[in-house]
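User: Before I run my own analysis I want an independent prediction to cross-check against. Here's the chain; please return only the structure tokens and, at the end, one sentence I can use as a sanity check.
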Amino acid sequence: MNYLFFDIECAGVFKNVAKICAFGYCLTDEQFHILEKEDLLINPQGNFHLTDRKGERGLVLPYKYEDFKSYPTFPQRAEKIYGLLQDPDTLVAGHATMNDVKYLNLESRRFSLPSFRFNFADTQFLYMNKIAEFSRQFALGTIAQELGVEFTPHRAVDDAYATMKIAEAMCKEANCTLLELIEKYGVRLGRIENYEIAQTTSTAHAKHIEEVARRKEEREKNRAAFYIFVDRAKRSRNKNGRHKGKRVCFSHPLEQCVEQAKRLIAGAFEAGMFYSYRAEECDYYICLAGESGQRLASAKEKAKRVFTAEEFEEFLRFDGAGSR
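Assistant: Structure tokens:
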């Protein structure tokens, strides 16, 4: 079996349009010996509108944009691309492959071409399984640097080559073929067929998703318990406390530390404070040590007084919390 590593660059990606301008590929045998390596440049039949993942900063592709009008269009390149990807004796792989497969899907629809039909592996997903880390994405450049692979970012054929070298490095480390590596991590290949796309999955990733869901449920349960306590405890708020009328707000992580949060809010009510669920409306914002995030930034921006949980507890103790 051969391996086909591919990468796609687009002149612009919108909700239902992906104007492919480059299809780079690196075809190897099972020992990663290169059989073919080519950058198929494509006339995107549209202007270049390049942004990052947030749709903000423009990316710069290492090509001369004015040359693209002279290249074949996607339909003119289609026979070659379909042949490469749908060869039954070839395992297809990319990096963050779902994105590129979506681009292919959009272009085939755009030009009323048949749906692509092939299975695909994902070196990014394999790497995530390798290090058992699913909470964030790993850029091609990040993994390449880790494994000592040099390449020119965003040149499709070079990205495809770097993807191949990453797969090779992981296989060498595990002393196995790419198919054996996929089996080792319990990975099920992604697939595109009838314009429908199924992403790659694995046993470890499924367990991660279950754990994320369990933790989310636990956080929501703890916050609900805290809110119920606040609703009940506020009825006996000391209206003559030394901080009467002041509003206190806790960070979400602190709200989930139910027993600690209950103790602090009881002290705040004894001091005459109200509880606010909005950081920008409070006088005192309380969080855990080492926290960051938009909610904390919002409180600081509004010139609120910010305490850690320990500092606020000391503040209440030192202040005496007032008396009835």
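Sanity check: Residues 209-319 form a domain with the Rossmann fold fold (CATH 3.40.50.10190).
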